[in-house]
Amino acid sequence: KAGVTQTPRYLIKTRGQQVTLSCSPISGHRSVSWYQQTPGQGLQFLFEYFSETQRNKGNFPGRFSGRQFSNSRSEMNVSTLELGDSALYLCASSMDRHTEAFFGQGTRLTVV
Amino acid sequence: KNEVEQSPQNLTAQEGEFITINCSYSVGISALHWLQQHPGGGIVSLFMLSSGKKKHGRLIATINIQEKHSSLHITASHPRDSAVYICAVRTGNQFYFGTGTSLTVIP
Predict the structure, then answer these.
(1) Cα B23 to Cα B32: distance, rounded to the nearest angstrom
(2) Which residue has better confidence, A40 or B26?
């Protein structure tokens, strides 16, 4: 079965712009969570969606937002990009909080 | 304070050696994942554990819930095992991650 698909894989944006990243979970999975990976901070939790509702949010500024659609696909948006937003953004999907999570390949965002 | 601590941070081994990576955590968890990340690559979940022990090929993962500790073992290590190994614990809907162990296996 198809894995977790993140698009695009690579992205270069300019400071001040906004960006939207997409995550398509494994078919049947209703939980999607997002993570940021930077060399200095490692992996950090951004937010988690289940059945179109945000259930949990990490300690990130309001410039980071997300949503989930009825087909469980999720998008995250970062507005007014800063150089420090350059990172690998990962999403993971699972059927629910008690089942195994599967990670996507990530989107590598570079802000210049 | 980190909810998840991994050791060692860096590890170099000769091909064929037995390798152990340790993970200790301080929060109540529903599951623990061992993840593998190759340079420039995405993340692959190797194991999900909530109790006991799991084995997949040359990889073995164990967890002791009472001691809040897990280990990842690699038997007969191979250069293709060179990667960063990350311990992640799940509490409800959120993961906490260790900082990773960078493993290099020399032929």
Answers:
(1) 10
(2) B26
